[in-house]
Amino acid sequence: MFSRIFIDDSxxxxxxxxxxxxxxxxxxxxxxxxCREYVNKGIAAAEQAIADARTAADExxxxxxxxxxxxxxxxxxxxxxxxxxHVNEMLKLxxxxxxxNPEHHSDTVQPGSLVRTSQGDYYIAISIGKLMANGSPxxxxxxxxxxxxxxxxHKAGDKLxxxxxxxxxxAVL
Length: 173
Known about the structure:
Blueprint: E1 5-6, H1 9-14, E2 21-22, H2 24-63, H3 66-98, E3 114-117, E4 120-125, E5 129-133, E6 136-142, H4 146-151, E7 159-162, E8 165-172
Parallel strand pairs: 4-6
Antiparallel strand pairs: 1-2, 3-4, 3-8, 5-6, 7-8
């Protein structure tokens, strides 16, 4: 079955807890929290960039004239549009996370599953890549990602192949 893993000091201090040995069910909750924090920080950063671009556009409005004004205004609008698109993408990720219950357990891989394979550990949620818990990597991937799609519906003991590499699902939580 799954081993235990330590969370790091920065996560522990940020979440008002002490570094301790975590059972895998708690690790699943930590991974969910890290995914949610990633989304929330992405939304906050993009919203701040939008506010900054609007402020800059308003200030430029007061001090500029002619073509220079129109060029600067267009650049600010492009910045606003880019960050608005980023907010929309982060909101889609939040909706995906909202469908996951980190307390749920299934014998088959589904969104929210923590999967240990002979090639590494994967948290099926949103695609944000490698998450660390005291030096032990776990990769957060989407169910729609190529590897996520292969893992979906399988259970411990199943043998699979991805990109020419064979691996075994050792456990699903």
